[in-house]
Amino acid sequence: MATSLLLLADTHLPVRAKDLPAEVWTAVEEADVVVHAGDWVDVRLLDALESRARRLVGVFGNNDHGELRTRLPEVARAEVEGVRIGVVHETGQAKGREDRMSGLYPDLDVLVFGHSHIPWDSTTATGLRLLNPGSPTDRRRQPHCTYLTATAARGELRDVTLHRVARP
Any bridge partners for residue 8, and if so which? Predict the structure, then answer.
């Protein structure tokens, strides 16, 4: 059986947008598991995702305070169809990221992270897949707002797809 995943980070609601784009809410409703790698900013988004997602795995980011830090961990782990997934907001600078994360998370197959708003997909020498979905609401210096979808099945992560968010 395959399990569909939606990967989000750096939503910064309501600072960067008043709500998630409609296509992201559609993806939330279609996904079996929603992963959010921090910087929610407002607890109302956590409440909304908890009520609409089948399963939610999330962490707090550097811009998350108060109730978000009370309700969310700094690092989360989940096993989905035999794929060992970790979630963290910050991984430090891009240079040396693969080696640092391999050393910190030797027990994972996939590490989802955020913070930079820059989409990232790489695999370390140890086989750890590093994924940053970018941001669906704040592109910063990127050409597009983005998010990722993927499928977990039989211990493998498949069909990792970067989606550009259509401008309203």
Answer: 36
Q: Which of 155, 134, 153 is nearest to 145 (CA)?
A: 134
Query: Is 1 exposed, middle or buried, given 0-12, 13-18 or 19+ CB atoms closer than 10 A?
Result: exposed
List the domains of the chain with CATH numbers: 3-164 (3.60.21.10)
**Residue 104 structure tokens:** 């910190």
Cα gap 66→79, rounded to integer Å: 28
**pTM of structure:** 0.96
Torsion angle, alpha carbons of 72, 120, 151, 17, to 10? 60
Structure tokens at 12: 């910064």
- For every residue of 122-165, DSSP letters joined together read EE-TTS-EEEE---SS--TTSSS-EEEEEEEETTEEEEEEEEEP
Query: Kind and range of the H or E element at 120?
Result: strand 120-123
Interval 20-47 mean pLDDT: 97
Question: 168: pLDDT confidence band, cut at 50, 70 and 90?
Answer: low
Is 12 in contact with 35 (CB distance < 8 Å)?
Answer: no
Q: Edge-to-edge, what's the strand order for the sheet holding 146-153?
A: 56-58, 33-36, 3-8, 146-153, 156-164
List CB contacts of 80: < 8 A, sequence separation 6 or more.
Answer: 3, 5, 33, 152
